[in-house]
Amino acid sequence: MGNLRIAILLRTTEGCFWTLPQVDELRRRNHEVIAILPPGPGALREQFRKRGVETLDSPFDFRFRPTLKAVRGLWRLRRLLCGLRLDVLNYHLYAAALAARIAAFRLPLRRVHMVAGPLYLESPVVRPVERLLWRLDDLIICCTQHISTMYQALGCPAERRPVAQYGVDLNHFDPARVRAPGPAASARASVRAELGIEDDVFVAIMVANIYTPKRIAFSGQNIKGHDVLLEAWRDFHAAHPRSRLLMVGVGFTEAGEAHRRHLMDRFADDRSIVWLGRLPDLRPYFLAADVNVTPSLSEGSNGVVREASAMGRPSIVSDAGGLPEAVNDSFAWIVPRGDAAALREALSIAHRAFTTGELAPRGRSAREHALRAFDRTAAAEAVADMVTHRHPRNRAADVPIP
């Protein structure tokens, strides 16, 4: 296809950084890219600004309520899309997908939905609705085969649900490029000295923001699995006292931060748990750790596992979503999601590998796998190919409605 006008519709100004390499690749191919975001400042908006990408405020606030304000917002979003005369509308996250499907209904443009996670498909309420609504997308780019399979179960044909996984900046996440932030000889030694952790102590790390328990799926549970890991860790540490757990992340919202505070209070008597909050650079902390733990109940491709692998760290992951697709048994252990006993056993196995020296070769295997599978440039190229390739459907019925 020739040069295209492409709008990316997002419901956040802070997250969705996986879109940036895709935008860079689309612009490298001389396509015009516009970002439609909620009003207000944010790290994502700043990244678009630095790239010279035009950003527009969404007139719809992505809150689906039976109110006149919501109807007016969707109508204004439709008018905005009409005025932009787009060739492609690319949307990420489910609220943006719903808004795009309504506002762009029957407009003469290509609709591309990129799915970052399967949580909404795991809802017994949303899933039957999505069985109908996916038909409003020309293409559903699934970040894992797991998501593509879920859409297959909803009747979506294979050519409409290709898989394109997110990549990692392998130059940035390279152990050889990380310098010690302090006077110590290595980043590992420097971080451990900062945290008061000796070199022969086994260290696990979990990197995930804390979300309040969802209602649409896994009701009442923390979907990133913090509670599961903390429960498993209590028994594991009792058996292996020379161990530490680094908990990296903050509450995603005020309610999420309140939930984080609740967890911190609940496990306040366990001095082996180090709560680190948000970190400007994860790389030295990956190097300070011996194993990454990702115990999610629901998950897409999960960039943390990929980054940990690139940093040469083996992982313990749950079998949720696309996590098993990001690892293999040469450097990772997969446990049933929500199973604290299985997670404790995996920690024990990793600890045994640590004491025998068998964990280091697993780390090297993780790095080698990342180099083969997680290149960000290749991933962005694959997405750009999908976004710009017109699906051979009959679009004669797509007539613009003012």
Strand order of the largest sheet: 3-2-1-4-5-6
Question: What is CATH's topology name of the largest domain?
Answer: Rossmann fold
The number of distinct helices, counting runs of at least 4 residues, comes to 14
**DSSP summary, beta strand count:** 12
Radius of gyration: 22 Å
Please indicate the percent range of residues in DSSP E strands (runs of 2 or more): 5-15%
Q: What would your notes on this structure say?
A:
The chain is of the alpha/beta class and 402 residues long. It contains 14 helices and 12 strands. Helix 3 crosses helix 4 (94-103), helix 8 crosses helix 12 and helix 11 (303-310) packs across helix 13 (359-373). The protein starts with a strand and ends in a 14-residue tail after the last helix.
What is shown here, in short?
This protein has about 400 residues and is α/β, with parallel strands linked by helices. It is about 40% helix and about 15% strand.
What's the arrangement of secondary structure elements?
Layout (H helix, E strand, L loop, with lengths): L4 E5 L9 H10 L3 E6 L5 H9 L2 E4 L10 H17 L3 E5 L1 H10 L6 E6 L10 H8 L5 E4 L2 H9 L33 H9 L6 E6 L18 H14 L3 E6 L5 H13 L6 E5 L5 H6 L2 E4 L8 H8 L4 E4 L13 E4 L4 H17 L2 H15 L2 H13 L14
Parallel strand pairs: 1-2, 1-4, 2-3, 4-5, 5-6, 7-8, 7-10, 8-9, 10-11, 11-12
Helix pairs in contact: 1-14, 3-4, 8-12, 11-13
